[in-house]
Design goal:
With 110 residues, this protein is an alpha+beta fold. The protein has 4 helices and 3 strands.
């Protein structure tokens, strides 16, 4: 009977049911979402701001060559969005610093 309802009614009922319980939301959707936006145009430094109900959303953009003080370098467009109601700023800063170190260390990638 549920599937005989119009799509917008099913969506309304499902999302209300899902968002009513934070534990159900976490169990169903998890806590992190990762999306890749830069795969469509190689060599273009694309980025976006992911909109999500998750406490952590990461948008991975494209990789492009850019001029730096030391010459040419490959630059990755990366957007990290945190829900400040869930995570405080200091742990977020430490996470971003560690993520930057792990991405830039070539020995960690092998």
């Amino acid at each position: 009977m549920f599937f005989c309802l119009p799509g917008w009614v099913r969506d309304l009922l499902f999302w209300r049911w899902l968002f009513r319980s934070p534990a159900r939301l976490k169990r169903t959707m998890g806590t992190v979402v990762v999306t890749a936006t830069g795969m469509a145009a190689p060599g273009v430094l694309a980025w976006g701001i992911p909109v999500s109900a998750h406490p952590l959303a990461i948008g991975i953009g494209g990789i492009a060559q850019r001029s730096t003080a030391g010459g040419q370098a490959e630059v990755l467009g990366l957007t990290v969005v945190f829900d400040h109601a869930v995570t405080d700023g200091a742990p977020v800063g430490r996470f971003i610093h560690l993520l930057h170190q792990l991405i830039t260390r070539t020995d960690a990638l092998s």
